[in-house]
Structure formats: structure tokens, C-alpha cells
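> forwarded from #structure-qc
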């Protein structure tokens, strides 16, 4: 228990303690903080209280304006910091609890803070690791007999995304324009995307990194995974369908990717680890690991149209449906010797489960526009309309508490007129 009051349905109990970067109206400087209940603990104010063998030498990382320097310190520093924070915030520890002046300087209400990207994202990679999603998309475009490409069950498929357009939750995004070919018997046309979609994803931040030419072994890959966020990897399906052969996503994806602002540390998620999915055929040795690294994270997607009084949930899914684990993704990414750096972002790909309500994209929910997604008030969708706000939430449910991620939201603005 913490001396900070935390309701049982809060995403941010002492079991969680996610890291983020924020500012306030009276102090516009970006600062590193930890969420606890409805409060933010400012780590720069209490940096002198980190006196362990690692962090006593690196207290200044909490004065930085991003989490990159802290991420770079590695898993021992993260574990030591978390232990210190749980001690300082516990109900029976007096250092913060009984020092009114220090508490007044060290805490700010979460509701009055503006959140920013938690790290400078140097590189962004998006995987394609949900078997249900890959199968659904394959059936739509290639038929049931050729749904999965020959490599899909052998390696974590992925592509390099656009880091510059990753934005923090709450940032509006404009409908993209581009080339499309709605009529295959006619030349392509140019205009605003008519099939703007969501992709329910999660992503992890790399910490520690690796040197160029030195792969990260799957057995130790977890030591390079700092923590996780929610993600909406927005997609213009009609632009993508025309451009993707032979090199994959480009303009259909590069216009915007939203992430939640609070990075949940992996230690907070380990109590919710589950056995990894059975993989058949067996992966090559460099991708094999036995330790459980699949996680029971409940995920929800809701849409709120301009005329709707409240958001309506259109998807209920779970991160445990993923086929390839984060450890496998990271090991595969670096097996060539590719160097990952602190703050790099690696995403799961769309998370879909076996049932229709767990499909993580409108492409699947509407089955390529062939059926409507019903919303309250007589509204329906096949793809997104201008003015739609999409809200992704997620949490792990523990006994009497939850470990959550907050929300990842974004509002669709009309395309620019040309």
C-alpha cells in the first residue's frame, strides 16, 4: 500500500509506477515523473534519495527532459530505481510521507499536467506478429489457402516505420491524401483516403541497446526491454493497398502513429506473464526461449463520433493473442548485428484474437467494408469519419488492483484541401 490514496480501479497503483514526461502551466519545462494514483512524483526533485550502488552515480538522469538517458543505464538501474520508488511511496516509509515541504515540491496533480513523448524516438519498427490478424488480412486479399505467406511462421515479419510522425496521445491527426486505385480497370486517382483505419497495437521501448555487429541473444533480450505503451498505428487502407507491392507500407502508414504517454516497466507486468504460444513449426534456435514472455493485458478500442455523447467500444482484445514474443522480435531485429539504441520503439503489429469482437482493426471488423460496425444513436462505420476520436485503453487485472496504461487517443481532422 502507498500513503498516496489510490482507488482500486486506478491504472496507477504502487504495483505499477510508470514513467512519463510532463509539463505544467506554471513550469513549461519537460520533466521526468512517475504516476501514482492521481499524482505525478517529480523524480528530479527527489533525485538525491536514489542512493543505491548504480543510481547514486547517475542521479542527474532524472533532470533530463526525456527518458533516454535513464533507459540507457540498463536493467539493473531500472530495477534499483523501482525498488527505491516503491519504498519511498509505501505507507510505512516516512521520508516522503512525513515531509510536508518535500511533498509539496515533489508531487503535482496528474489532471493538471500536459504529457509529452516519453523519449526521443530515433528509430521505429513495426512488426506483424498476430497470427489471427495476419490470417484475416491474408484471407481477404489472397484467399483462405494462401492466407499466411511462407515466411510468416518462421520469423517475426516487420518493417521500418517513420519515427518523426510518432505522436503522444491526444494529438489530433489529419486525414492523409494520396494515390488510390478503387477501380482496378482504371488508372489511379489522387485524393483524401476513404478507408482510414485504426490498428490496435502495443509497443516497447528499447533500453541499454547493443553495439553495431553484436546481436542480442534471445535468452537476454528482456534485459533490453524498458517498458510498454499502448499504440494506434493509423492506416490508410486504400493508399496502402495500391502502394504496398512489392515493398510494403509507406505513405499508407507514415502520416501518424499515436502512443500512450506512460511507459509501464516490464517488472510491473511480469506478474501477468503467461506461457508463450505453441509455435509450429519450431523456430530456428536463435528465436527459441522457454521463459514465459506473453502477457495477459486486456485491451479495448472505442470510437466517439462528433454527434455521439460518449464513446462506444468496438473491440475487446488481449495482448496474449500475439504469436511472436517481444524477446523474439528483439532477437530477430538484431540477429544481423543491427544496433538498437535507447528510446527506439518496437511495435507489436495489429493485435487480433480468434473472435470477431477481438479484431484489432476496422478492416477486419467491417471485413474490408462489406459490413457495418454499429454504434449508438443509429450511427455506423466501415472506416473512420472526420471528427471521430479513437480511444485505446488497456490494463492487467490483479487481486484488488490493476496495472494499466492510461489511454491512447487521437482525433481525426479533415484532409487539407488541394
Amino acid at each position: 500500500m502507498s500513503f498516496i490514496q489510490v482507488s482500486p480501479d486506478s491504472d496507477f497503483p504502487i504495483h505499477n509506477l510508470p514513467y512519463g514526461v510532463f509539463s505544467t502551466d506554471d513550469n513549461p519545462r519537460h520533466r521526468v515523473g512517475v504516476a501514482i494514483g492521481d499524482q505525478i512524483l517529480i523524480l528530479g526533485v527527489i533525485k538525491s534519495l536514489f542512493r543505491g550502488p548504480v543510481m547514486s552515480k547517475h542521479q542527474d538522469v532524472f533532470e533530463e527532459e526525456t527518458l533516454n538517458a535513464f533507459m540507457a543505464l540498463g536493467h539493473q538501474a531500472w530495477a534499483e530505481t523501482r525498488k527505491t520508488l516503491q519504498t519511498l511511496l509505501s505507507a510505512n516509509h516516512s521520508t516522503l510521507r512525513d515531509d510536508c515541504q518535500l511533498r509539496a515540491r515533489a508531487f503535482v496533480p496528474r489532471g493538471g499536467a500536459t504529457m509529452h513523448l516519453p523519449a526521443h524516438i530515433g528509430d521505429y519498427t513495426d512488426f506483424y506478429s498476430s497470427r489471427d490478424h495476419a490470417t484475416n488480412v491474408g484471407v481477404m486479399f489472397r484467399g483462405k489457402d494462401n492466407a499466411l505467406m511462407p515466411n510468416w511462421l518462421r520469423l517475426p515479419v516487420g518493417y521500418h516505420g517513420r519515427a518523426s510522425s510518432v505522436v503522444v496521445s491526444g494529438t489530433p491527426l489529419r486525414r492523409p491524401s494520396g494515390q488510390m486505385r478503387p477501380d482496378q480497370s482504371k488508372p489511379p486517382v489522387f485524393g483524401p483516403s476513404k478507408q482510414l483505419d485504426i490498428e490496435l497495437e502495443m509497443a516497447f521501448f528499447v533500453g541499454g541497446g547493443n553495439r553495431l555487429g553484436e546481436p542480442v541473444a534471445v535468452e537476454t533480450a528482456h534485459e533490453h526491454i524498458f517498458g510498454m505503451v499502448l499504440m494506434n498505428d493509423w492506416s490508410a487502407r486504400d493508399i496502402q493497398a495500391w502502394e504496398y507491392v512489392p515493398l510494403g507500407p509507406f505513405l499508407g502508414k507514415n502520416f501518424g502513429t499515436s502512443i500512450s504517454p506512460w511507459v509501464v516497466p516490464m517488472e510491473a507486468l511480469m506478474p501477468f506473464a503467461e506461457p508463450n504460444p505453441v509455435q509450429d513449426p519450431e523456430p530456428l534456435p536463435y528465436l527459441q526461449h522457454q521463459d514465459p514472455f506473453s502477457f495477459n493485458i486486456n485491451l479495448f478500442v472505442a470510437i466517439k463520433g462528433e454527434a455521439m455523447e460518449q464513446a462506444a467500444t468496438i473491440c475487446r482484445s488481449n495482448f496474449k493473442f500475439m504469436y511472436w514474443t517481444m524477446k523474439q522480435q528483439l532477437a530477430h531485429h538484431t540477429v544481423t548485428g543491427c544496433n538498437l539504441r535507447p528510446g527506439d520503439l518496437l511495435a507489436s503489429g495489429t493485435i487480433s484474437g480468434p473472435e470477431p469482437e477481438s479484431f484489432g482493426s476496422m478492416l477486419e471488423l467491417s471485413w474490408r467494408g462489406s459490413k457495418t460496425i454499429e454504434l449508438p444513436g443509429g450511427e455506423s462505420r466501415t472506416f473512420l469519419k472526420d471528427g471521430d476520436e479513437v480511444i485505446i485503453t488497456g490494463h492487467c487485472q490483479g487481486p484488488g488492483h490493476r496495472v494499466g496504461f492510461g489511454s491512447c487517443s487521437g482525433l481525426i481532422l479533415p484532409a487539407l484541401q488541394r
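QC bot note: The first strand starts at residue 19 and ends at 24. The two ends are 57 Å apart (CA to CA).
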